[in-house]
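Hi all, posting the design record for the shared folder.

TITLE: backbone redesign
STEP: 1 of 1
STRUCTURE INPUT:
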């Protein structure tokens, strides 16, 4: 079985166009087989985008898929954008969608943070839940290491995908975690990297 966080070059192409409206802007995304939520912008992504407050500075869209989250936020708030995904098709379509939507983005092929250097003011993740906790929890830990002091991580997840244990993990990693949205099983979390914080074990999972 193929997953969007792996590469499968045997899939037949199924090119689609998605239209998405945000902050008086019309976005058009091209998608294909093997990409997450290729038929529409998924509800979790929509909730995340509409929950995040105005941003500034640099943004990393980790596990970007076809690029929706980063492109929408970067265009809306004039951010310096970096996007990364392990899937080459996702990288290719993110590059295409960035150009089509008039957004400048550095798009990288990277297995989570393996190919990421530098640090960012904001990191956003709609985590690949089906990759398992070992993968997603390491993404949260690595996010801490790749944030500037005062930088923020935004995560969207679902109760059925372990939102409560994710909250504990994020608190354990950052020493703080705010719940910005909690409705109908969807959660949006925000963590802030503080200058005096080291990844520790203040909380037990």
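Okay, here is what came back for every position:
SEQUENCE:
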């Amino acid at each position: 079985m193929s997953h969007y966080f792996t590469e499968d070059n045997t899939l037949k192409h199924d090119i689609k166009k998605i239209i998405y409206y945000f902050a008086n802007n019309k976005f058009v995304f091209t998608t294909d087989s093997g990409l997450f939520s290729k038929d529409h912008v998924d509800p979790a992504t929509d909730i995340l985008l509409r929950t995040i407050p105005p941003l500034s500075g640099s943004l990393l869209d980790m596990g970007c898929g076809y690029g929706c989250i980063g492109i929408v936020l970067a265009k809306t708030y004039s951010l310096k954008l970096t996007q990364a995904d392990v899937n080459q098709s996702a990288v290719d379509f993110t590059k295409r969608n960035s150009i089509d939507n008039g957004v400048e983005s550095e798009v990288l092929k990277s297995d989570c943070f393996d190919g990421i250097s530098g640090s960012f003011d904001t990191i956003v993740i709609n985590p690949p839940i089906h990759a398992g906790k070992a993968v997603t929890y390491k993404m949260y830990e690595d996010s801490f290491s790749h944030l500037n002091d005062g930088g923020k991580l935004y995560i969207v997840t679902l109760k059925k995908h372990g939102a409560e244990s994710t909250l504990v993990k994020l608190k354990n990693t950052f020493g703080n975690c705010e719940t910005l949205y909690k409705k109908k099983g969807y959660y949006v979390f925000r963590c802030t990297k503080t200058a005096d914080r080291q990844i520790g074990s203040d909380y037990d999972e």
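COMMENT: Residues 88-100 form the longest helix (13 residues).
Let me know if anyone wants the other runs.
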